[in-house]
Design brief:
Elements (H helix, E strand, L loop, with lengths): L5 E5 L8 H17 L2 E4 L5 H12 L4 E6 H5 L9 E5 L2 H11 L2 E4 L4 H15 L7 E4 L6 H12 L12 E3 L5 H7 L6 H4 L3
Parallel strand pairs: 1-2, 1-5, 2-3, 3-4, 5-6, 6-7
Helix pairs in contact: 1-2
Length: 194
């Protein structure tokens, strides 16, 4: 998949307890800025969200935050981004982030990050898009996701081709090669379970 000019990054509003999480967010932001790839993200100034946004900005890149009004009101919105889009719901936030992005990367994060990652992969399974999805498995953070997908396949709730709906990489330097190599989703990921 070529032509990534805008990348959506899903990630935590906390930095977590492993310094490698923030290091990965920082490095990903640096790589994006070096490549001239714009960031779309959840609009926060805190946690990994703030780390990746600040790294892109520090490298001279463009950052678009998308945040629901109730979170903006809690003063976690990043006022230093290139553009901050305010939505009226979490659903509208995810839809807008999707519309603005050529691909997706998930860093470590909490329930919101899990939700965003599952939803964007599910939309791909349902053939609502064919954009590449990469999961940055920092120190094994997302290994449970890979095991859960394998369990769904083993239990015959998913076709084995669902593994191709996302790429799992171990470090930020592998993100863009994975985005560029992402295959188109196979019909079987949907049709085998209709």
């Amino acid at each position: 998949m070529a032509g990534i000019s805008t990348l959506c990054v899903f990630c935590g509003s906390k930095t977590g307890n492993d310094p490698a999480f923030a290091d990965a967010a920082q490095r990903l932001g640096e790589i994006m800025a070096e490549r001239g790839v714009d960031l779309v993200y959840g609009g926060g100034r805190i946690g990994l969200m703030g780390v990746v946004a600040d790294a892109v900005l520090a490298g001279g890149g463009r950052v678009t935050g998308v945040i629901p009004d109730f979170l903006k009101d809690l003063e976690v919105g990043h006022n230093g981004v290139s553009e901050l889009i305010i939505t009226n719901s979490m659903h509208a936030r995810k839809q807008r982030m999707f519309e603005l992005s050529d691909g997706f990367v998930s860093l470590p994060g909490g329930l919101g990050t899990l939700d965003e990652t599952f939803e964007i992969v599910t939309w791909k399974q349902l053939r609502q898009h064919s954009k590449p999805v990469v999961v940055l498995n920092v120190n094994g953070y997302w290994s449970g996701l890979a095991a859960l997908i394998d369990a769904a396949i083993k239990a015959d709730f998913a076709h084995e081709a669902v593994r191709e709906l996302l790429s799992i990489v171990d470090g930020p330097d592998a993100v863009f090669p994975a985005l560029e190599a992402a295959p188109e989703p196979r019909d079987e990921v949907l049709t085998s379970h209709l």
